[in-house]
Amino acid sequence: MPDEDRPKIIIDDDWKAQAQAEKAKLAEKDKAKPAPAASAGPAGSPAPAGEEEPIGFADLVQMLASQALLYMGAVPDPQSGRAIVSIPMARAHVDLLGILEQKTKGNLSDEEAGLLTGVLYELRMQFVDLGRAIDKAIKEGKITPAQVAGMGGQPSSQSPPLAP
Fold first, then answer.
1. pTM score > 0.90 for this model?
2. How many other C-beta atoms lie within 10 A of the C-beta of residue 164?
3. Are the CB atoms for 141 and 77 separated by under 8 Å?
4. Domain ranges of the chain
5. β-pair partners for 85
6. 78 Cβ contact list (under 8 Å, min separation 6)
7. pLDDT tens-place string over residues 112-161
């Protein structure tokens, strides 16, 4: 291939100086902007560029709810890929959310209170459904009471109720 048909590569030795000059101009523009009142806003507000959003109340509720669902067998274990049913652990996580609701009453925004109330309602309903499914499986002979004992108990009318 003749030299005139080849693409020509132009090397710009001054590219570093240009990049640093642009960086300096951007820094000056940032200094000229008014500084925000706080570096990190409350949960739900956007975090400043380059920073992660701080963990908030909704994240706590979501974490406890995810654990409750995991132990109710609704979500597969991330390591094994199999469902886990541990009635005491599921009850503990739902009860923790109930305690959180009691202890924060009157101190939450309407959005936070609604989230917590809704999540608690759904988890309690799923816990009751789990108890019914276990009772039905025992009656049909699909599982034995000994297998249920291996799950840590039985969420049915015979079990103590979830904390209100």
1. no
2. 9
3. no
4. 57-150
5. 72
6. none
7. 999 999 999 999 999 999 989 988 988 998 888 888 777 766 554 444 44
